[in-house]
Amino acid sequence: MRQQPVLEVRGIRKEFPGVVALDGVDFRLFPGEVHALLGENGAGKSTLIKVLTGVHPADGGEVVLAGDRVRIAGPLQAQQAGISTVYQEVNLCPNLSVAENIFIGREPRRFGLIDWAGMRRRAAELVRELDLDIDVSTPLNSHSIAVQQLVAIVRAVDLSAKVLILDEPTSSLDRDEVRRLFAVMRRLRDQGVAILFVTHFLDQIYEICDRMTVLRNGRLEGEYLINELNQVQLVSRMIGAELAGLDRLGGGKRSERTAPADGAVFLEADGLTRRGAVEPYDLAIRSGEVIGLAGLLGSGRTEAARLLFGADQSDGGTLRIEGAKTALRGPRDAIAHGIAFCSENRKTEGLVGELTVRENIVLALQASRGWTRPLSRTVQEQYALRWIRALDIRPDNPEALVRNLSGGNQQKVLLARWLITDPKLLILDEPTRGIDIGAKAEIQKLVANLADDGMAVLFISAELEEVLRLSHRVGVLRDHRMVAQLDNDGELTPEHVMATIASGADR
Amino acid sequence: MSTATATAASPVKAVIRSRLFWPAAVLTVLLVANLAFTPDFFSVHLQGGHLYGSLIDILHFGAPLILVSLGMTLVIATGGIDLSVGSTVAISGALACLHISDSSDPGSVGTVLTALGIALGAALVLGTVNGVLVARVGVQPIIATLILMVAGRGVAQLITDGQIITVTSDPFKLIGGGYWLTMPFAILLSALVVLATVLLTRFTALGLLLESVGGNPVASRLVGIRAMRLVGLVYVFSALCAALAGLMVSSNVSAADGNNAGLWIELDAILAVVLGGTSLNGGRFSIGGTVLGALIIQTLSTTVYTIGIPPETTLVFKAFVVIAVCLIQSPVFRAKLAARGTRTRRTTRSHAAGPTNREVGA
User: Fold this and answer.
1) Element (H, E) at A247
2) Do the Cβ atoms of B212 and A359 come within 8 Å?
3) Cβ contacts (< 8 Å) between A369 and chain B: which residues?
4) pLDDT tens-place string over residues A2-14
């Protein structure tokens, strides 16, 4: 009414084998706004974005860009039309330099040859504009995921976009980086860029967004101004039940976790270390106990956990499992001792995308049985269906290819894979990252129940509230060192943990 | 509860979606095309207790390629490649023929069995070398097997002393040139090996584990699959298949030619695997598809002879057919073709895609 939308889609439909991902979805985006796209995992957010950016052709409906009906045939056409995207998982070339990544496909040229010096200079300027300190000539994979994400944003911003799509850009950023990103977003918005922002952090939506569109089960739930709905109303729109089940999201769980676990010590690390990854640390985990690992991204949380799983070899210290000194030669050893590990990189280190949900779920159990003792198809299906139901994995088709699932559902498949091995220690590295609030609560509840049933859990997360809600004790890491282990005695607050992380830090 | 509205697939759709549909369709078209040039192409007749006919010939001469492709399929499923199979074919034939020709009693079954043992034993060693280089040392498969591809050819010539060794041995002749139960023995042997491989991979967890290793090696290690051992073993398997093929080839001509036996068969085998729908990136594999792929290649070779294409243009003809086959099998290409078809029907305007060519709303 007031203004013409820069981008409008009407009646978009998209089907994957076995799944209707989008069913007649309408969506509009006005210039100079930050627009949140919301929905649970599998609601169709990622698919909508991929249709808008030409990654998937739509099966029906139309896309109108700046008043013209267009057919977006591919990512390149989308970019040329002014739609730039930064995906949840970084989609750049890790082996190329930062500068090359920023300019892939549109390298500045002189006399037909690539102007390398010019490219580096331009890239350095762009990076500086974002207030980042990155050497643009270094390879992308020498930087943390967070920095890689920022590079992707730099790239997208420089594509002189009319529409900038940010798909979960903040899920791997720390608070400082988020603030920096928001500053850039506001500047772009004031320049008239339309920003589509997908995130699971509700606070961030209320901090930066102007309007929001909610999807549910592949359908449009509604479009709202940001002040039309409060958080509780928003969540109920997302999960579709009128305020139902919201109590499961509540924070009242903490008191249950304050009683110290009294199980036997399952695993004990004594001065365990790996050069360049994590300094020597001590850690004891009892059966039935949840230990949280808190710390900033890259503080050594993952590295510490990988040593306990044999994913990396330790080069110092000792590890005792159930009292016996053990040297893990690899994940296989750890699994044999009843340890399970859900990696934070579910795409690269977790799932096998072209295998089905069923195959991915039985993989770890099958591997431990060896190839000569196959699980029968019937048994595989029983496992798959049981956990699809228990974790509400969508679609509920065990033969769906895992790569066609949304991030949150992939995470659940990964969890199911390890839970059927009936582990004694479950290591969860960022199990709720990039997952919607409903699934997050489900996973938290699951972890609590598992611990109550006697499983030891190592829970790694960047979200302190979550760590505190679940853990009996919290190990705090900073700069690859375990700086403290705090008892979660009911007095422990996120602020206290934050202070521990920050104390003595350089910045 | 579910967001998934299962798309009810009609039986026809299910067949078309089957991984084997396109290879099977291509093979059928090739065979039918032959009928136009050779009216009795499909006729099979029994003569002196042996079956004869073009179809039998295709299976017979395609048997070594089927075996080599079979081994190649599992290697490719792990994300690797085995370029050394052609050399292994030559070495295995050379060793067997050398043993038989040196023997005092070339016609005895014992001699031939020993020759087979020597050939397969050598393949075991060669495959282990490849497997260790790839799985343990971590050499890229294409490089690791290139070593044996080049060096192995030389080894084969050393064994035969640069000569073609001819042998006269009825038991040996059976493997590649003989008949059993009216069928060429080579067909039965390759069918048996294919069947055994299907049983081994699909009725144990081997297939799943191989596909997992090929699909995502890092994740496979983290779920505790012994990836190193699996990857090593597929190279051994591939070498054994190649050795068996080498025995067939040399048996069929009763001679070992270190120079030409199995020359370029690795490329045909890779092609057969790809035609069969197994991705070179590793992961999902289809043994049925590979057999169809190998038969497509063999049919193509037969076609070239039967329709009288001049020998000097044979390769060009083959190349065009292969390109066409690959395009037809590519879902992306088919989708483009279909999109173009519907669009030209809808509008006669520009068929270039993209926002630069805006289409007027309906």
Assistant:
1) none
2) yes
3) 205
4) 578 899 999 999 9
